[in-house]
Amino acid sequence: MPVAITVPELRVQLNLESEDDDTLLAQKIDAAEAYASSYIGGEIPDPAPAAIRQAVLMLAAFWYEAREAATTGGNPYLIPFGVHDLLQAHHAWVV
């Protein structure tokens, strides 16, 4: 599976200057790419479309910041809003 985003890109998204969490960030990227690949029903294309890159970036950043299910107004959110919308156009529909 091609890498959609890099650790330095995720650090920029999170406004992190330190490289202390790079191993954890790499794990979040791997997990987000696996999620995106599973959601679209296939491999992430190489090069990855902008929408998939953005979804992976959002998801990896969310999982880094939340580290668990987050709640807003009592509702738990495991996936940030917009991730599924970005991936939907790349979903492989099986008939």
UniProtKB/TrEMBL annotation:
Pfam families: Phage_connect_1
InterPro entries, per the entry: Phage_gp6-like_head-tail (IPR021146), Phage_HK97_gp6-like (IPR006450)
Gene3D superfamilies: Phage gp6-like head-tail connector protein
Protein name in UniProt: Phage gp6-like head-tail connector protein
